[in-house]
Design a protein that fits this description.
The protein has about 110 residues and is mostly beta strands. It has no helices and eight strands.
Length: about 110
């Protein structure tokens, strides 16, 4: 079962979105499941501003500000490294998202 939620000003498709309308939820997506390019599976899009870049071996950790939230992306083999302060589009598959009650103490 799928439904739609709003996040970062975007309409996002997530599984099990049969929550009460307007209920505050935390959107969870593992950092390695977020990509910088859309494809057939990665159809949800968030747009933010790149705040931090960290390199760890072949991994690049990007931290973006999306509204009031920070989003971490873990990428490998990026063709180009975006500059701090750049606009960053991030994509994830609906199946990779989970909604958790905001008061779940996570």
């Amino acid at each position: 079962r799928r439904g739609a939620v709003r996040g970062g000003g975007e309409r996002l498709i997530v599984p099990g979105a049969d929550e009460r309308v307007g209920a505050p939820r935390l959107l969870c997506v593992r950092p390695q499941n977020v990509t910088l390019t859309p494809d057939g599976a990665h159809t949800n899009r968030l747009v933010g501003t790149l705040r931090e870049i960290h390199w760890q071996g072949e991994l690049t950790h990007l931290v973006a500000q999306v509204g009031d939230a920070l989003l971490r992306v873990v990428a490998t083999r990026l063709p180009t490294i975006p500059a701090r302060g750049a606009r960053l589009e991030m994509f994830f598959a609906p199946a990779d998202a989970s909604l958790i009650a905001e008061d779940a103490d996570v």
